[in-house]
Write a structure and sequence with these properties.
By secondary structure, the chain is mainly beta. The protein is built from two helices and 15 strands. The longest helix has 10 residues. The two termini are 34 Å apart.
Length: 241
Amino acid sequence: MAKPCPPRAFHWALRLSGLLAALTLGATAMAADPPVAAFQSEYRLKAAGFPFSVGATRSLAPAAGGGWKMEVKAKNFIGEIRETSVFQWDGCVPVTRYYGYRRAGLGRVKTAELRIDPASHQATSERSDHEPRTYDAGPGATDEIALPLALQCMLSRGEDALTLRVADEREVETHRYRVEGRETLEVADREVKTIKVRRVRERDNGRETFLWFAPEHDHALVQLVQRNNDGRHVLRLETFP
């Protein structure tokens, strides 16, 4: 069953992202070294219901005007997905100022944007075929594409109970993650020691999310697995930063 792109439920994992935002976040954020260094890495996504895998790129770089931009994007002959987060670091938390999503394929385009005012914490979202929505995001909210960066930073500081407030186009949710143990995976043609993290869900809705980070490679994300009702989706690193 062909689709123009991977299932929407898995998009946060890739966060195949990037509607290049031009937000001013303040030059002071650039003065100190960031908790996660800039990088660009290649991944491969194999999604349930897809007869082939899709290449994806995750990158972190300074944003125009200050702050940081996390971008993930995937593209094949059917279509492409891009998502972007523009944020400012607050400790280990990438505090979101802008999130953008764009999916194009088979003559159709779907977009979503979320902006969070840094002073009032007011979130404004716009989605294709939906009325604009506003809500109070509160302080310190990140988004799903930047979330793995926060986990990467927290693990590098030895934390094992990880809690984050995550904003999307509708609301803010509290996400909780827990270190499950350590595993050795074959990644990018080498054996890599990893820390395995699981998302803790309060209700058993049949969904499971696991992430693997490599301590010997700055705790980079090397694999993400999500199991939904529609099957198993795997994102795996192909090249180290």
